[in-house]
Automatic annotation (TrEMBL):
GO terms for molecular function: beta-lactamase activity; zinc ion binding. Pfam families: Lactamase_B. PROSITE patterns: BETA_LACTAMASE_B_2. The gene is ccrA. This is beta-lactamase. Monomer.
């Protein structure tokens, strides 16, 4: 029996190892609303591919990216997709916080001459994690105005991280909540290693006040939706906060 158990464990370990070695993530792009696409990248989580969302926002003459994909390969795929399908240059890439699911493709962006836009706090936290962002560092809140496109970058308070920002697209009434906002599929708060659970509910309520005309919400992971995602996030916080 002992030998059978050892054999089973070795087989299980080999299976996970083989899966990790053969996993080749492929970027997905899905249309969302007028002039907006969601780019979806993947990494293994618990042995299963798990999605991470970012945005492609198309202006009159250029494109705005919200967050990089989860690795360099998928970030390169994103740049090539925009070149092939949109056929407009990428003006900026906004980074909403310092974790790898937002910043892993920073070197790809820099190699293609795409300026990163990030808060000073995100720059400091990224550098502490080994990623030196280069581009435009701002205090906390700013607006990017491009031809046919406006994007408001806002820090609503601590939550998922100390530096988590959101991006508001007024033309589409779309809020990119990033990892501050949980999807309907989420049953936990996910990665809370750098979270401020006590402040998180107040931060979410700030979004209600700031964006009364909100129509769409795109979370950092899994399926997007509407204002109900903010309520769902608050409900999860009630369940998972001591």
């Amino acid at each position: 029996m002992h030998n059978v158990l050892i054999s089973f464990l070795l087989l299980l370990a080999y299976s996970f190892s083989a899966q990790a070695q053969t996993f080749q993530p492929e970027l997905e792009v899905q249309p969302h609303s007028k002039g907006v696409f969601v780019h979806i990248s993947y990494q293994l989580y618990g042995g299963t591919p798990f999605p991470s969302n970012g945005l492609i926002v198309v202006g009159d003459t250029s494109v705005l990216l919200i967050d990089t994909p989860w690795d360099s390969l998928q970030s390169e795929q994103l740049v090539q997709w925009v070149a092939n399908e949109i056929k407009k240059p990428i003006g900026y890439c906004v980074v909403t916080h310092s974790h790898a699911d937002r910043t892993a493709g920073y070197q790809v962006m820099q190699r293609h001459g795409i300026p990163l836009v990030f808060s000073q706090e995100t720059a400091a936290l990224s550098q502490a994690q080994g990623r030196r962002l280069q581009g435009i560092a701002h205090e906390r809140d700013t607006t990017l105005a491009m031809a046919g496109l406006n994007a408001e970058i806002f820090f609503p308070g601590r939550g998922h991280t100390a530096d988590n920002q959101v991006v508001w697209l007024p033309a589409q009434q779309l809020l990119f909540g990033g990892c501050l906002v949980k999807s309907k599929e989420a049953t936990s708060m996910g990665n809370v290693a750098d979270a401020d659970l006590a402040a998180w509910p107040t931060t979410i309520r700030q979004l209600y006040t700031k964006y009364p005309r909100l129509r769409y919400v795109v979370p950092g992971h899994q399926q997007w939706g509407d204002i109900q995602l903010l309520m769902h996030t608050l409900e999860l916080l009630k369940k998972h906060t001591p």
